[in-house]
Amino acid sequence: MQQEATRLLQAGNTIALVPTMGYFHEGHLALMREGRKQGDALITSIFVNPTQFGPSEDFQAYPRDLNRDARLAESVGVDVIFAPEAEMMYDQGHQTYVTLDALSLYLCGPSRPGHFRGVATVVTKLFNIVRPQVALFGEKDYQQLAVIRRLARDLYFDVRIIGVPTVREADGLAMSSRNTYLSPDERRSALSIHQSIQLAQEGVAKGIKDARQLVAETSGLIHSHPHTKIDYVTLCDPETLEDVKRVDEPSLMALAVWVGHTRLIDNAILTP
Ligand code: AMP
Question: pLDDT averaged over the chain?
Fold first, then answer.
């Protein structure tokens, strides 16, 4: 991959990179379509990164289908798929990690210790291997996008980070490779995540500003569906991710909800 990147760059191409864990859905393909417009050479990486999974998380169970992914990637014009083995990305003596201070403490930070360290480390490796001028990430993983923007800035990566809006199923559920874990019953309950954000959006549009009230209404709607357990529902500053008490400015509503054994996340900016 490094040799191929050198060849592409020496021939005057700009490289666009879409990092993924594979098992593609329309969300991934939206990133690739945007990447196709942004770079001469479009590279997508497929790597289920072990260091971003906790010991009790779904690293082993995470869905994988490289052949199907390759077909889908080709259909949207991906030039190169980079799908390394774990031993290649982390050899036996590996001991260097990238960590962020504040940004990794909020939202998913407390329930997924080490997750953003794994993400920041693997993205740093991918940037060094692929040397993209543009890299695309989904707004669905809002905190991840914030972490990567900060990381690129702090470490002087000469790469433009582009956020792509969340792609949803027809009924509003944010697309995720993990949706495949849901039973039909759980799938119905999972819809409450998006519905509850819409409820908060309507509340803000009607003039409700109190974050506690908005969070309570959001949580109430989710709890009224079976199989759900809230990890967090937060209203925060879209840049720093620190909690806000009132929605006087555009604020990020972010949530993580267990539906059965599946942990799902979603978010939206609420604008008063
Ligand atoms: P993943 O394979 O889940 O690690 O996701 C790879 C990239 O696709 C990340 O930048 C995600 O934020 C992005 N992504 C995942 N789901 C969606 C979605 N529903 N809409 C837009 N982007 C997404």
Answer: 98
